[in-house]
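Entry
Fold in token form

___
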Amino acid sequence: MKNLVLSAACGLEPSQINFFLKSLRKFYNEDVFFLVGKKDYKTKQLLGNFKCNFLEVNVHKFDIQLKRYSFFLKILKEKKYKNILFCDSRDIYFQSNPFDYNFKGSINFFLEDKKIKDCPFNTHWMVKTYGQSTFLDLSEKTISCGGTILANHESMEKFLTLMISELSKHKYKKRLKYLLTFRRDKGARGSDQSHGNFIAHNNLISDTSFYSNESGPIATVFHLKKIIFNEKNELVNVNSEPYSVVHQYDKRWDKFQDNVLAIKKKFEVE
């Protein structure tokens, strides 16, 4: 049974996911499935070049983050996989095969380096979806990253089903001016992070495991305290082990620029 990487690239230019694809295919040759828009012609061509499957969806690029769960669930209903990495695409690159790690849980969440209460974005999303009471219940929990989750097939189906349910029951509360004018409230982008944290920290899926940002296999670097590179330009954790996945590197571009450009240059030579 194969593994699967699930991601979305609706409205993205090929240049925005090229590094994701090149780095992933350097280490991983199993299934990849993307969501794309019907007019993403060049992106679809690039995905074909990297032997990736894609599902065309009629969703605005600003809405796909909240609507991707139902499409991903549809994909999983059609074929059985061993393990699945659910991840973002534009701000991720790979340093090894993400499945070559001894994961403990049937679903694995990767923590950031801040508590929910100490991040204004996560605080805002939690309050605007679940309300003040739930925010206070979870405020001391460390942020679980919504852009990298790894699970076996059964648990990923459960997670996606729960996300669809939670997004429906606890919708982001639009600001009044957006309600009155029927416009999209940009503040809602990323609010699915609150639903993911609600599911993760309430252990709604049995056999849930969490991994530290500083010592685990996946790095979400926006809040990462120790940014260390080895002689191969690989980001390493506090145990000097290269991370398999690097996420949000664009948010720390001042630290990552030289190393990312060196890796890209090496890809061109190879």
The CA atoms of residues 92 and 210 lie 20 Å apart. The radius of gyration is 18 Å. The domain at 4-269 is CATH 3.90.550.10 (Spore Coat Polysaccharide Biosynthesis Protein SpsA; Chain A). The longest strand covers residues 142-152.
